[in-house]
Design goal:
Length: 223
């Protein structure tokens, strides 16, 4: 029997690498073959997996369900996809049984993985999610968007969408702070809420420092 983690990672990588090269319109030859300039989707997923491994035991969730859902939650999401109806959660859920077939993942846990994946979207919640595995995936996915690694990912993928400069990064980052507050207020689990507060404080300090560095002393400051 194959390892479910290996199967998830390989299925994810097969999607993210080809999608990354398509979107960047650029690739680098490496010993492992052509690679996109930055495989944003894979790196984001790694962040979510690490958070899932941390959060699941603290929240009392099934660690296999949460980690498996983390690996596959965005495995059918495409860079630059701005369709009015975003179906990437349902699309990912549909391919879960096929990816896990023939692996050592317990078949009776697959419905819980799919439930979590189908409900991981959105940046705010009107009501807490349940069961706890579904709540943990939402929290891990959103925490990944407000940490130090999220800054690395945000800057590294920026050039794929168009030219980037420091002022633009700063403006977008400052706008993101409002949504980061909303995300923090929507956390389902207490450990994630506390971590979100720490990360939000870091982001506020980071962009405050960048603003101080990038304001031009020759220009009058806006009161
Ligand atoms: Fe997603
Ligand atoms: Fe995600």
């Amino acid at each position: 029997m194959n390892s479910w983690r290996k199967a998830c990672e390989e299925a994810l990588r097969a999607h993210t690498e080809s999608d990354g090269i398509r979107f960047w319109k650029l690739s680098h030859p490496t010993e492992a073959g052509l690679r996109p300039v930055f495989d944003y989707r894979f790196e984001h997923t790694l962040a979510v997996v690490k958070l899932a491994r941390w959060l699941a035991p603290l929240a009392g969730a099934d660690p296999e369900v949460v980690e498996c859902a983390a690996w596959l939650h965005d495995c059918r999401k495409f860079l630059g996809d701005v369709q009015s109806k975003d179906s990437h959660a349902m699309d990912a859920s549909k391919v879960v049984p096929g990816i896990l077939a023939g692996t050592d993942f317990p078949a009776d846990k697959i419905p819980a993985v799919r439930h979590a994946i189908e409900r991981h979207v959105g940046l705010r919640l009107a009501h807490p999610l349940s069961p706890v595995e579904t709540a943990c995936l939402w929290d891990a996915d959103k925490l990944s968007k407000i940490g130090a690694a999220s800054l690395v990912h945000f800057v590294a993928i920026g050039g794929a969408f168009g030219p980037v400069d420091t002022a633009g990064i700063l403006e977008k980052g400052e706008r993101w702070l409002g949504l980061a507050r909303t995300i923090t207020d929507s956390m389902n689990t207490e450990p994630a809420r506390q971590e979100a507060e720490r990360r939000l404080a870091f982001l506020i300090a980071h962009y405050g420092q960048l603003r101080r560095e990038w304001n031009d002393p020759m220009e009058p400051s806006i009161p």
